[in-house]
Specification:
Strand content: 15-25%
CATH superfamily: Spore Coat Polysaccharide Biosynthesis Protein SpsA, Chain A
Order of helices and strands: HEHHEHEHEEEEHHHEEEHHHEE
Number of helices: 11
Largest sheet: 7 strands, mixed
Structural class: alpha/beta
Number of strands: 12
Radius of gyration: 19 Å
CATH architecture: Alpha-Beta Complex
CATH class: Alpha Beta
Protein name: Nucleotide-diphospho-sugar transferase domain-containing protein
Helix content: 25-40%
CATH topology: Spore Coat Polysaccharide Biosynthesis Protein SpsA, Chain A
Length: about 325
């Protein structure tokens, strides 16, 4: 039967206003803790201002605010803001990693992104603690459904053993990704008390993904790096994520250093940049112990999940518009 969801006119208005050609938007979430002046949000926006070919991308950035204070701050300084309804949930304060509030926030995010796909919008989702230093779009793989950054990258973008990080994804809106996000969200019940990234590692080799023919690529940390595994070549790096790092003050301290290093690099004359060999001074206060960062979510991960869902159990629209604007009829047999 047709999938039914209450139409969110305000979300549709915001997405339409921010969309680039091809109905693609950039999304991030924000709560009060990260929205304070001088905190993560300000550094995030500054990175767009000083990055290479990133300033214009602010026109396509939608801030998803998780509380009233964050929404008020967004409205004061950015044109595209959407207040996500989180009834019965309080995402105002910083949620400690793997706390109950943290898990609820992560799964509310997956549910929301599923809605965006169903509305026909492709998206780049980015955590706000990711610095945008260079336009990433030229580095995305063409005609791939789902692309995701990594905490640990083993050299092959198709290798499912790469360790993904859900803080940065590029997802094309089509039936395959709609089904995938619903399956991902449903799988939280199969693997309770685990966050979205942990569950993704459980299901990334599941036969459901093969049946729906989802194409997936893992992004090279040389271009999409972080504190877990930095992109060392300043001439290549697109983003820098404060992963392998816990605590708001710690992240702010080290991300400020990232932006300082980037400003020093971009201040060089073009002929000197190509031959320069700068290095990142960050992380300093953040942990770089890769094993510690993974100990909470690599336990008991099997190559293939034992959870299988028949495709007919999914509910999805009889028709939807793909990224080319054509209406597509869908029938499961």
């Amino acid at each position: 039967m047709p999938f039914q969801r209450k139409v969110d006119l305000e979300l549709g208005r915001v997405l339409n206003k921010a969309s680039m050609k091809g109905k693609t938007v950039i999304l991030t979430t924000l709560n009060d803790a990260w929205a304070e002046p001088g905190s993560i949000f300000d550094l995030f926006l500054e990175s767009f201002q000083i990055g290479e070919e990133t300033k214009e991308l602010l026109n396509n950035l939608v801030i998803i605010s998780l509380d009233q204070k964050a929404h008020a701050r967004c409205l004061a300084i950015h044109p595209h803001c959407y207040a996500l309804k989180t009834e019965g949930l309080n995402f105002t304060r910083e949620a400690p990693f793997m706390s109950e509030d943290y898990l609820k926030m992560m799964w509310r995010r997956i549910e929301f992104l599923s809605t965006v796909l169903e509305m026909g919008y492709s998206f780049v989702f980015t955590d706000a603690d990711i610095m945008w230093l260079r336009n990433p779009f030229p580095r995305f793989y063409p005609r791939v459904d789902f692309q995701i950054a990594c905490d640990k990258y083993y050299g092959n973008p198709k290798d499912r053993s790469n360790q993904p990080n859900g803080g940065f994804t590029y997802v094309r809106s089509n039936l395959r990704t709609i089904l995938f996000y619903r399956f991902w969200f449903m799988s939280r019940k199969t693997y309770p008390d685990r966050h979205d990234q942990d569950v993704l590692n459980k299901i990334k080799n599941d036969r459901v993904l093969e049946k729906i023919e989802l194409t997936m690529r893992f992004l090279d940390t040389a271009y999409f790096g972080g504190f877990c595994e930095r992109g060392k070549d300043f001439n290549k790096v697109c983003t820098m994520h404060a992963n392998c790092c816990y605590g708001l003050e710690t992240k702010v301290h080290d991300l400020k250093i990232v932006l300082e290093d980037w400003k020093n690099y971009t201040s060089l004359p073009p002929n000197e940049r190509a031959s320069a060999s700068p290095s990142w001074r960050a992380p300093q206060n953040c942990s770089t112990d890769h094993n510690v960062s993974y100990k909470m979510w690599t336990r008991d991960i099997n190559p293939e999940s034992s959870f299988h869902v028949h495709l007919a159990s999914f509910h999805f629209p009889d028709t939807f518009k793909n990224t080319d604007g054509y209406q597509v009829s869908v029938r499961i047999v």
